[in-house]
Amino acid sequence: MPRTLTLARFKALLLFLSVFLNLYFLLLHAPSALLSRYTSSPTTRRHLVFAIASSSRSWSRREPYLRLWCSPASTRAFAFLDRAPIDSSGDKSVARVVVSGDTSRFPYTFKGGLRSAIRVARMVKEVVDRGEPDVRWFVFGDDDTVFFVENLVRTLSKYDHDRWFYVGSNSESYQQNVKYSFDMAFGGGGFAISHSLATALARVFDSCLMRYGHWYGSDARVFSCVAELGVGLTHEPGFHQVDMRGNLFGMLSAHPLSPLVSLHHVDATDPIFPNMNNTQALEHLFEAVNVDPARILQQIVCYDMSHSLTVSVAWGYAIQVYDGNELLPDLLSMQKTFMPWRRSGSIDASQYMFNMRDYPRDKCKRPTVFFLESIVSSSHGILSNYSRHNVENCSKANAIKNLEQIRVFSQKLKLDSDEMKAQRRQCCEILPSFNDSMTINIRRCRDNELISMNF
Ligand SMILES: *[C@@H]1O[C@H](CO)[C@@H](O)[C@H](O)[C@H]1NC(C)=O
Ligand SMILES: *[C@@H]1O[C@H](CO)[C@@H](O)[C@H](O)[C@H]1NC(C)=O
Ligand SMILES: *[C@@H]1O[C@H](CO)[C@@H](O)[C@H](O)[C@H]1NC(C)=O
Ligand SMILES: *[C@@H]1O[C@H](CO)[C@@H](O)[C@H](O)[C@H]1NC(C)=O
Known about the structure:
Blueprint: H1 2-29, H2 32-39, E1 48-53, H3 59-69, E2 76-81, E3 96-99, H4 116-121, H5 123-129, E4 137-142, E5 146-147, H6 149-156, E6 166-168, H7 174-179, E7 191-194, H8 195-209, H9 218-228, E8 233-235, E9 244-246, H10 249-252, E10 262-263, H11 278-289, E11 299-304, E12 309-314, E13 318-323, H12 328-331, E14 334-335, E15 338-340, E16 356-357, E17 368-378, E18 381-389, E19 405-410, H13 417-421, E20 427-430, E21 437-443
Parallel strand pairs: 1-2, 1-4, 2-3, 6-8, 14-16, 19-21
Antiparallel strand pairs: 4-7, 5-10, 6-7, 9-15, 11-12, 12-13, 13-17, 17-18, 18-19, 20-21
The structure holds 2-acetamido-2-deoxy-beta-D-glucopyranose (NAG) (4 copies).
Pfam families: DUF604 (PF04646)
InterPro entries: DUF604
């Protein structure tokens, strides 16, 4: 007995000593990089620096779009202009206005193109050379690009800013991608470059510019130089170049699961809400964005078996109510409500990078649409309110004949970094009885729950 006890004690002592010594040497000699991996704070808005391509002619017209997502107090943004703006808002300016450096020594040979492409491309060097402190990502966009910054932060947090990353998206237009590259981040949709890659790029950029005088745009020049450094595009579907015109409804109501990061060409398309101009419509969208950014445009589908209805919610924007059972995969494709960017282009589906379905010409054959009216948030959750958009006097199924408003309850969507890596669509249910007002509750799906009409 005493013998075994001593042995056990001795073993315990040895174990203790070895754990202690291990910890001691680990903490004493661990390379600082190993430790910093654990101490690195989460990426926030403050770690981003935006460089916005603008010009003295467009600045005052486009500044209201920047105002939607950018504020001097919370966002570091520099607007690069060819010269000082004509009517400057001075100290009240939403971004720091910077006059770009001289680029007359670089070649530009693209016929019918604009030399300003070089100036704009060179933002990637000029913004790094400013030496801003504590930058994890440099983000580039145009003055008609609207960013959804919280979602951008979440998206970029998936990647290690100490490694070389070039994050963005190509065009929705197949032809544009053929012309430039399927692997190029289109500049209007915006793209992000990790600080470490940006630092390397800034050192070599001027020498790259000498080789690409034959390219049309600025984004192709950045893409080429990034490619020469041996880095490829990390594709994130939340960036939107929006090489489309007209009514974006079909695109916005079937957004991919990735959070919405950007929208471009915001004044070249129709206003996204009825009876508003472009600025007002985007301001209206931002009422929802500011309440629950991660959920904006997220598509959630629920079914009412007793009335045979299918309801597709694009949160914060619009709801469509279909008569009958629409299968989920069909609802995930985009309704063809928009036109190609090139006005001469044909309108067939093969020119886009995504699946589409027809939007009936006969307005009465379309689903009934409800647009965001108002939104309120409290400690119990979020109530968004959508009201019916009547275009014609169409006779609708009895169940929705009187339906004028839809109220949607949800909780703020918190996507932590694990959820960002494996996203899952949420579920919803329609409260049983409705007449002129319907209530929908959005919640997480249960483990084995299927998004379908249950029989
Ligand atoms: C949009 O409407 C608002 C409010 O009526 C107005 O102040 C603003 O100038 C309009 N913007 C444009 C671009 O027409
Ligand atoms: C929703 O909007 C409609 C139309 O403006 C309004 O009549 C209704 O009171 C609103 N409901 C809520 C809950 O805010
Ligand atoms: C719908 O019908 C009402 C009443 O018959 C009529 O006043 C209204 O103008 C019609 N609206 C449309 C868009 O046709
Ligand atoms: C449904 O709403 C309509 C219009 O608001 C109203 O006339 C009707 O009485 C309501 N029906 C029921 C059962 O509440």
